[in-house]
Amino acid sequence: MADEQQKTAAVVDGERPLTDKELEAMLRKSEKVTEFPEVTFDEFTEPTWDEWVEACNALLKGKPFDKIMYTKNYEGITFDPIYTRKGTDAILPTNDYPGMGDFLRGATVNGYVHEPWGIAQACDETLPAENNELLKEEISKGSTVYNIKLDTATKNGVDVKDAEKPGDIGVNVTTVEDMSVLLDGLKLDKYPIMMYTGAGAKNLLALTVAALKGAGHDVKTLRGVIGGDPIGELVKTGKTETSLDALYDEMAETIKFAKANTPELRTVFINSDAYTDGGAEAVQEVAYTFATAVEYVRQMQKRGVELHDIANSLYFCFNQGANFFMEIAKLRSLRMIWAAIMEAFGAEEADRAIKVHGRCARFTKTVVDPYVNMLRNCTQTFSSVVGGVCTYDNPPFDELIRKGDVFSRRIARNLHVMLQEEFGMLSPIDAAGGSWGIETLTKQITEKIWAEFQKVEEMGGIIKALEAGYPQAQVADVLAKRFKALEMRSDRAVGVNMYPNMTEEPLERREEDTPKLKKEREAAVAAYVADIDTNYLAGKLAAVETVEGAIEAFSNGATIGQVAAASCKAEAPETVEAIAAHHWTERYEALRFETEDYVKKTGKNVEVFLCNMGPIPQHKARADFSTSFLQVGEFNVHLNDGFQDGEDGDQYEKCLKAFKEGDYDVAVICSTDATYPEIVPKLAPMIKAAMKPSATLFLAGAAPKDMEQVYKDAGVDDFISVKANCFQTLKMLQKKKGMIE
After folding, report:
1. I need a labelling partner for 131 at 20 to 30 A (CA). Which of 208, 266, 325, 480 fits?
2. 560, 157 in Cβ contact below 8 A?
3. Where are the coiled-coil regions (predicted)?
4. DSSP structural state of residue 739
5. What whole-number distance in Å separates Cα of residue 360 and Cα of residue 735?
6. How many CB atoms lie within 10 A of CB 196?
7. 533: Cβ–Cβ under 8 A, 6 or more apart, which residues?
8. 3-state secondary structure of 696
């Protein structure tokens, strides 16, 4: 970081901007200034709190102010309806500056002015040559980081011949030749590299260095991160392949190697995916990720690694969720908390700054109506930039369905470009600084993260906590709350549990031909290893515990599987309860797919008749609500303009006649609360008598307590309203239809 602060920015319009060091000196000098001119706003009349509440109540039209205007989130923080200076003056960071102190206001003095956030779009094509082309394409179109996403087999040290599904989530690499093809022609002296390597970094770091040295590349210019996260992988899978001590030894080895050979490359990539994919809220995500990082710091110190070197080896990845202001506060908060943690370890000021990579949370994405993911990604990326990430990956909107294509990648990448070049997000330094609301949220989430982090520390650290099942239970509790909120539609997923798009054409999954790709990869690897001197290689494989030894082995023809097997110590692995990955709408999507499968097999669906009573203004609101409610299950809702009294009969007979003309599984009486006492006792028995035994009669709207039993006695089975459990209601109707057991 010290080297970065010494860099001089490029000359702009003939004038040289201040370097970070010059700006820092100016800011520190400004701390001595204590007198400022008074600014008044006498021309404005400041309303009182009571006056503002009175104005709100007028708009709420009788709805309870305290219930409507205060919002509690999953972090246990309540959003106030309005924030004022009077309530936040004491916590404003008036003595804090970006790039120093507690780093609340940013990791660097100049923010993004001289060094924009890195555009790190993940490249995940299966074949090394194709992924190489994709990496070059991304850079040519605006990306500024080579973000290489590896497949599961490569991260786990499994050769392609033994891989269950090579290329499942990224590029497959087995030999140094594969890595050479993958890195061929990349401008690694100009752009940083990013590679998450799974539980350990040693073997893939060695494979990368071997390939670059073989191509004559000066590895000292290599920068970015090639890093692993053993505890993160433990949480995802529930086990390690060897002992944690062995993995810590490997981690220390990579840090020492990087210090001597690739000083600008970080080798520990601490990832919050395991928690956020499991449904964790922001407090849990940061607290448990920092508890993991603290474990690494302690273990590295035990192995003789200097604190400065540890600090400069760590790179964090956090997921950005859907709560816009909360996510901004989270990023500001975590910089401050990490600075405090490193200060407690005795780190110098420059070593307290945190390096943060961000990505849009997979948990918040949907498979159904996936184009809405573009909007979700937009707000999450925006909050990340305002919060101050160092690098960012905005995944394609279709990431839950398939690997991205030209269109989805372009849309994802261009969001960065627009934010940087069109929206002016490179100019403000600490864009959220001074915001009464965000400063308050930052303080609140900081206190909660610190308290949760301390709980883990009191349990003996993250490993003891995981062995006791504490983080798993906490995350599971939040996941259950999220699912319940979706069931009740208090949380709204547009296109899924609200406003379903019944004309949607599902995206083509474009499944890869895995057997064909595996065969192609196996042939390439077999051709490469055919000329290898296996006896000579055996000697090299006996010395792969160091990065240098692994480099030698790879350079002499070893495969990733051979080096992994030779490196793995026969020590007891760690096991804990894993946190399974989810995405928030998966249950609704499974429900919808069950309907689709049943329709394809039988040609039948849940048929819904709307008993729309009276003119359109009388029934429309309830009819629209009920239609959307039931279409969430992709049921077939039959629409009509309502039934009214006329010369051709009364509304009840007309409604009954229309109902009898079809074969319906559901009927919904739709009108107003004022008309229901007259309509329901007469219409409900008529419709109920005409229904088949398995059919269900709903009333649209929540009945007053004194009328609920009256309506049920008339034949109403249940009510469709904002209080109804949408998910359970739809499952019940599927079961009645025979779609599910």
Report:
1. 266
2. yes
3. none
4. S
5. 36
6. 26
7. 556, 557
8. strand
Handedness of CA 637, 639, 644, 648 (dihedral sign): negative
Q: How many residues does the chain have?
A: 741
* Residue 236 tokens, joined: 């995802």
* Local structure of residue 239 (DSSP, 8 states): B
327, 77 Cβ separation under 8 angstroms: no
| Sequence ranges of the domains in the chain | 120-488, 587-737
Letter for the amino acid at 181? Answer: V
pLDDT for 603 equals: 97
Query: Which CA distances in Å does 137 have to 226, 397, 533?
Result: 21, 19, 37
Confirm whether pTM is higher than 0.70.
Answer: yes
Is there a contact between 478 and 126 (Cβ–Cβ < 8 Å)? Answer: no
The tokens describing 343, both together, are: 């200060």
- Structure tokens that stand for 521 in this block: 């990869």
CA neighbor of 656 nearest in space, from 717, 607, 609, 713:
609
Q: What is the DSSP track for 362-420?
A: GGG--SSSTTHHHHHHHHHHHHHHHHT-SEEE---TTTTTS---HHHHHHHHHHHHHHH
| Segment 556-604, tens digit of pLDDT | 999 999 999 999 888 889 999 999 999 999 999 999 999 999 999 999 9
Q: What CATH class is the domain 587-737?
A: alpha beta
Beta bridge partners of 223: 264
Other beta carbons within 10 Å of 723: 10
* Distance in angstroms (rounded) separating the CA atoms of residues 546 and 629: 60
Give CA separation, 528 vs 130, 174, 183, 205, 521, in Å: 19, 10, 17, 20, 11
Q: Mean pLDDT in the chain? A: 94
- Predicted local distance difference test score (pLDDT) of residue 15: 60
How confident is the model at residue 5, as a pLDDT?
A: 37
Nearest Cα to Cα of residue 145 among 109, 111, 121, 114: 121
Residues 6+ apart with CB under 8 A from 480: none
Using alpha carbons, select from 204, 206, 195, 208 the residue that is nearest to residue 149.
Answer: 195
CATH 3.20.20.240 fits 120-488, yes or no: yes
Amino acid type, 718 = D
- If you search the block for the tokens 């309530």, which residue do you land on? 87
Strands (E), 538-583: none
Q: What is the pLDDT of residue 12?
A: 42
Residues 6+ apart with CB under 8 A from 639: 610, 623, 627
Closest CA to 175 of 627, 539, 562, 463: 562
Q: Rounded to an integer, what distance in angstroms lies between the CA atom of residue 81 and that of residue 90?
A: 19
Q: Say if strands 607-612 and 666-670 run parallel, antiparallel, or are unpaired.
A: parallel
The SS3 call for residue 265 is: strand
> In the prediction, which pLDDT does 568 show?
87
Measure the CA–CA gap between 295 and 339, rounded to whole angstroms: 16
Sign (positive or negative) of CA dihedral 294, 297, 298, 299 = positive
The encoded tokens of residue 560 equal 């990733």
pLDDT, one tens digit per residue, over 381-415 is: 999 999 999 999 999 999 999 999 999 999 999 99
Measure CA 403 to chain center.
17
> Given phi > 0 = left and psi -120 to 50 = alpha, else beta, which region is 61?
left
C-alpha span between 38 and 40 (Å, rounded): 6
Helices 436-458 and 324-345, packing angle to 10 deg: 50
Alpha carbon distance 338, 336 (integer Å): 6
Which positions ≥6 away from 9 have C-beta within 8 Å?
A: 16, 17, 18, 19, 110, 113, 114
Percent of residues in the chain assigned helix, strand, coil, to nearest 5: 50, 10, 40
Cβ within 8 Å of residue 251, ≥6 positions away: 200, 201, 228, 230, 267, 268, 296, 299, 300
pLDDT attached to residue 16: 66
Q: Which residues of the chain have pLDDT under 50?
A: 1-13
Q: Give the C-alpha separation, 526 to 532, whole Å.
A: 10
